Amino acid sequence: MQTLSVSNLFFRRIFLAMLAAVMLAGAYGPAALAQTSAAPTVALPDFSAIIAKADPAVVNIRTTANVPVRSPGGGTDPYELFRWFFGPDFQPPGMPPQPQQPTPRQAPEERKVPRGVGSGFFISEDGYILTNNHVVSDAADIYVTLTDGREFKAKVIGTDERTDVALIKIEAKDMTPLTIGNPKQLKKGQWVLAIGSPFGLDSTATAGIVSAIGRDTGEYLPFIQTDVAVNPGNSGGPLLNLNGEVVGINSQIISRSGGFMGISLAIPIDEAMRVADQLRASGKVTRGRIGVQISEVGKDVAEAIGLPKAEGALVSNVETDGPAADAGVKPGDVITSFHGESIKRWSDLPRIVGETKPGTRTELEVWRRGKTVTLSVKVGELTNAAAATSDQAPAEPEQTGSALGLSVVNVPSDVQSKLGIKGGVQVRAADGPAAAAGLRPGDIVLAVNNSDVTGASHFKDLVKSLPKGKAAGLLVRRGDQTQWVAVEPVK
């Protein structure tokens, strides 16, 4: 039995080995190899033709700055440097005080020193160059070097700090401008390339893909995010698509080291050209304004007030006698559309309003009390005027409790008039879910979900009717700011 068992095991192993050989022959035999070689392949793009055409349009920009020379007072005094640091009465150790002869003071001398390098590109044959504001701001002199080695001194036509766009010009003709592309046609994953002067190495080309579209970093404009290698000195250079068209201005990198770490940001060229057109026409940028302070709409707040999507710009304050106030916009409104454009993110509104010419009358849509309201607004001109502020006076003690953890009182009529509100209740104490949501004494609750609060008794009734397990949206005013706050009633 033992010998038979061993024999059976021996033949079983031979059979399995032969079976494996047959399977391998089928998988890696001539037929399989032929099938593998016939699989489609994708060739990487060749950027040489694009670079050869675009290269003459890209320039190196270097700037200088004026710095003061060491304090004059000069002469041959060997201790003059010490007196510059320690004051005119400084005396070397061991020497008796010497009377100081008054020295006539002269204006401090200055000398020019290198300030930085950047990039730019021609947008016209007569020498207009687009670059970043931070490349040329506070520069004493600006020098532009072409790919053929020629160097020109440039003058600033205009700059815009808000978008980080600058327009400069050299006195030259027959320059090679880049073709302006459409960044709205970009898709995530498409190839793009940059040309610039990283670390002063002019005419350097790098390539990568579009990583994200409309990247919101809190700046005025949404960016094109790429993984194209961009380093200090690339700022102001073009971002090109595979048609050789400029679709962006390389502006920023996100880095912990100061060098490239895989995330580069470019200003969309359509936004930059709108700024450049104004700079070329008048040397400055004029923007529209409507006089509101806004914030993001959270998902919990959107659900509480019945907004279909967590989109739009939540109005937290309306400037007194401003365009929005005249149009009827109220704190707590959510602006969902302006001038025919949908407001997807709250940061879209300043850009769209800013691009609207002052004096234009247009429509905006707001979400108010569970429905869309269309208002007509006349756009004003952006200034540095500060938003109005209001103080709140003590309220009459008519206290009531609620399942939200709030004790509230009526808002006196004179305070309502001063704040420009009707009704509402003022928080005397906040506990439980209300305190957890951030409410505190002195806050004024203007609405619960889609119902305006007329007083403390009305507030109590509204809270009683709230469904358990679902957050309620409270429109809360604190100081001159109004915000929707989601608070879930206690079970």
| Total count of strands | 26
Report helical residue fraction: 10-25%
Number of helices: 12
Class inferred from helices and paired strands: alpha+beta
The CATH H-level homologous superfamily of the domain at 183-282: Trypsin-like serine proteases
The whole-angstrom Rg is 34 Å
Low-confidence stretches: 1-6, 384-399
Fraction of residues in β-strands: 25-35%
Provide the CATH architecture of the domain at 183-282: Beta Barrel
CATH topology assignment of the domain at 183-282: Thrombin, subunit H
Backbone shape:
extended
What would you say this structure looks like, in words?
By secondary structure, this protein is an alpha+beta fold. It is built from 12 helices and 26 strands. The chain has helices at 2-28, 30-37, 48-54, 80-86, 133-136, 269-282, 299-305, 323-327, 348-354, 413-419, 432-436, 456-464; strands at 58-68, 110-122, 128-131, 141-145, 151-160, 165-169, 191-196, 204-215, 223-226, 238-240, 246-253, 264-268, 288-289, 292-295, 313-318, 334-338, 341-342, 361-368, 371-378, 380-381, 406-410, 425-430, 444-448, 451-452, 472-478, 481-487. The protein is extended, with a radius of gyration of 34 Å. The termini are far apart.
Indicate the topology:
Blueprint: H1 2-28, H2 30-37, H3 48-54, E1 58-68, H4 80-86, E2 110-122, E3 128-131, H5 133-136, E4 141-145, E5 151-160, E6 165-169, E7 191-196, E8 204-215, E9 223-226, E10 238-240, E11 246-253, E12 264-268, H6 269-282, E13 288-289, E14 292-295, H7 299-305, E15 313-318, H8 323-327, E16 334-338, E17 341-342, H9 348-354, E18 361-368, E19 371-378, E20 380-381, E21 406-410, H10 413-419, E22 425-430, H11 432-436, E23 444-448, E24 451-452, H12 456-464, E25 472-478, E26 481-487
Antiparallel strand pairs: 1-2, 1-4, 2-3, 3-6, 4-5, 5-6, 7-8, 7-10, 8-9, 9-12, 10-11, 11-12, 13-20, 14-15, 15-16, 16-17, 16-18, 18-19, 21-22, 22-23, 23-24, 23-25, 25-26
